[in-house]
Amino acid sequence: MTMPFPSPSPLAAHWDLDPEVVFLNHGSFGACPRIVLARQHELQREMEAEPLRFLHRELEPRLDEARRPLAALVGCDADDLAFVRNATEGVNTVLRSLEFAPGDELLVTDHEYNACRNALDFVAARAGARIVVAEIPFPLAGPHVVVERVLGAVTDRTRLLLVDAVTSPTGVVNPIAELVRALDERGIDTLVDGAHAPGMLPLALAELGCAYFTGNCHKWLCTPKGSALLYVRRDRQHAIRPLTISHGANSTRTDRSRFRLEFDFTGTADYTPFLSVPTAIEFLDGLFPGGIDDVRRHNHELAIAGRNLLCETLGIEPPAPESMIGSLASVVLPPSDEPPIPPVGLDPLQQALMDRFAIEVPVMRWPRPELRLLRISPQAYNSLDQYRYLAEAVASLLP
Predict the structure, then answer these.
(1) How are beta strands 158-164 and 105-109 bridged, if at all?
(2) For a FRET experiment, which of 86, 88, 119, 233 has its CA 20 to 30 Å from that of 167?
(3) Rounded CA gap, 384 and 255, in Å?
(4) Is the dihedral of CA 212, 165, 183, 67 positive or negative?
(5) pLDDT tens across 302-322, in order?
(6) Is 219 helix (H, G, I), strand (E, B) or coil?
(7) What domains can be seen in the chain, in order of their start residue?
(8) What span, in angstroms and rounded, lies between the C-alpha atoms of 332 and 168?
(9) What span, in angstroms and rounded, lies between the C-alpha atoms of 109 and 113?
(10) pTM of the model
(11) Per-position b or e across 141-163, b if 16+ CB within 10 A of its CB
């Protein structure tokens, strides 16, 4: 391999990423800009200077203030949003609040994120309900395949659909609006696992009409780790309780909804990731002339360009149409007999890319169907040169 070590985008100056690593994995845990971390640290110092004032007297109005710009961004009333730590917690919150019975069917696709599928399995086993899996092929011809497969698995026993807005292993943007509408016509609620959606996709949750939606802020909105949103449609809020039952459960207040009283304070914790959300939104909105819309466009175009480079260099076809790609994109690699590396099960190719080329990018063994995928997830700090470097590095390591 002859390519020199690539430079990131000039916008990387806003992040504290290691300059000796080609970081191409924003999609896993995000990366928080320096200005947002500074705001969080300022809030933490304020909290520790007078904990009672911060956590007891002022937290509630601060959370109200933090929800407003987030609600405007995702298109809903701020009172229909709650903060949770991550999308997996949001999925668990909904699933463990709902009551299912023996014979009920809970519908999911085989692309669902493993942690959330585990939560679905847990509540189904506890209730004696049945999991029905809609198998979605990959490579994927188009969104119509997803709709056909999901609706083909619906029966008169279906109680709930759990579906990714953007699938984690494949990076495919699912036709959520069409699925929600079709299921709603059948009297079936949808829980959208939108882990990657806030900041990646344009959202209008009130218009979408799903019963439940959860999404991370610490991924594409670049907030501190441990900040996510849970949207619950107003007519479903009475049944949804936080995972931690706390003071709000027996509050006699009537100035706020039960949903607000229970979710806004669940005990002593660091609430500063939530309170930093407005700073992150303001930061992203100022990166490009067109604001966050331009950030989304930039990341999408870089994902497509990076995927094209990989496909051309490796002599493979794109596995999904461009219309189904946001800021995540996967390509299918040849299968490998090499066992994953313990203890966390890294693919040997992923480890070799780090050891030999200082590239941080996920290579996933995805078993349904059995595929080996390499996934890219560009953020504003990445450059096309980094993806040229990645394509050459991968080509040099494959047989």
Answers:
(1) parallel
(2) 233
(3) 52
(4) positive
(5) 999 999 999 999 999 999 999
(6) coil
(7) 10-24+291-397 (3.90.1150.10), 37-283 (3.40.640.10)
(8) 14
(9) 9
(10) 0.97
(11) eebeebeebbbebbeeebbbbbb
